[in-house]
Amino acid sequence: MRTVLASVLAVAAAGVFAAPAATQPPRPDDAKPIGVVPKDNVKMDASTKKAVDKALRYLADRQEADGSWGNTAITSFVLLAFMSNGHMPNQGDHGKAVAKCVRYLCSCARDDGYVVGPRGGNMYCHGMATLALTQVYGTTGDEDVKKVTKRAIELIIKTQNNEGGWRYDPAPTGADISVTIMQVMALRGAKDAGIHVPDKVTDDAIKYVNKCFDRRTGGYRYQPYSAGAGYARTAAGVCVLQLCGKYDADDIRAAVEYMEKVSDDRGHYWYGHYYAAHALNQVGGKVWEDYYKRMRDSLLRSQQGNGEWRDGREGAYGPNYQTAIAVLILSVPTHYLPIYQK
């Protein structure tokens, strides 16, 4: 995952209108993902809520004057962290910070829909920002946000390459699983929010993701013919397939077994667990319960006194990024955001 720091002068305004949260389509009756239980037995306990509240106060204090926390990708992770705990634009204890962040992301959209800001970025930044905006629109019905989001989705559609994937440039050239998965997440968020996405676009994208599956190990490779599977890519692959309703039990079972064997990926620790938490929550059952307890205990032990998470794993992206992802992992049981609902 590559990111390019970008900051902008906030210029766009985004009004907020309350609307019912979007929901995902029901799971097909014949789908049998492994380990699913009728009810999610994992809840946020008091200690976890306290840690999350402390982290959100830390992030609120770190917001830049323009409404950002770094580039559009990191800013979007932070925005989702607030929203996953019920803080919406101008609603909740951090409502003003969230509204300011939404205005910032909208101001980063170029005329062609590319949401990276005037100092540049890449399709990973764009995909993450678009996903965040779909969640804002899906939970608020804000028409100004919808306009920006529709243009951002149109750019994703136009830049899909002939393999069905995307890479870092906003052009239909190369593809890799990391950037592709982020675009698929954004497309799914748009569909949930009622924004049209042609079925062929998502179908071709899933075909590309499936090409990256390594049947020898059960994991997912960076590209179809690259060497070696990885934990982060495998977690992302399972997450997207579940969210898109592709419940191929054999592939998912093999991928989950691979994840349990490998445990994590130090080179992409936070990125990997961002996806793993949501992937395994979709899988459900003991797999999810054991994972959440292990991550919760680890994260509560490693949180700093000021509320942040900061370590050498993916340290280049800084504590805003790490703290936001820690909050997102801990907050999965809240199911506030449409994209992460079962």
Strand count, sense and closure of the main sheet? 2 strands, antiparallel
Beta-strand fraction estimate: under 5%
Q: Going across the biggest sheet, name each strand in turn.
A: 1-2
- Percent in helix: 40-55%
Which stretches of 5+ consecutive residues score pLDDT under 50?
1-38
Structural class computed from helices and strand pairing: mainly alpha
Give a nutshell description of this structure:
The chain is an all-alpha fold. Among the domains are: 122-211, no CATH class; 215-302, no CATH class.
Structure, described:
The protein is mainly α. Helices cover 52% and strands 1% of the residues. It contains twelve helices and two strands. The chain has a two-stranded antiparallel sheet with strand order 1-2. α1 packs antiparallel against α12, α4 (123-140) packs parallel to α6 (177-192) and α6 (177-192) runs antiparallel to α7 (199-211). The longest helix is centred in the middle third of the chain and has 18 residues, at 123-140. The radius of gyration is 18 Å and the shape is globular. The two termini are 27 Å apart. Residues 1-38 have low confidence and may be disordered. InterPro entries: Prenyltrans, Terpenoid_cyclase/PrenylTrfase. Pfam families: Prenyltrans (PF00432).
List keywords for this structure.
342 residues, mainly alpha, two-stranded antiparallel sheet, 2 strands, 52% helix, disordered N terminus
List the helices and strands and how they pair.
Layout: H1 46-61, H2 72-83, H3 95-107, H4 123-140, H5 143-158, H6 177-192, H7 199-211, E1 220-221, E2 229-230, H8 231-243, H9 249-262, H10 269-283, H11 285-302, H12 318-330
Antiparallel strand pairs: 1-2
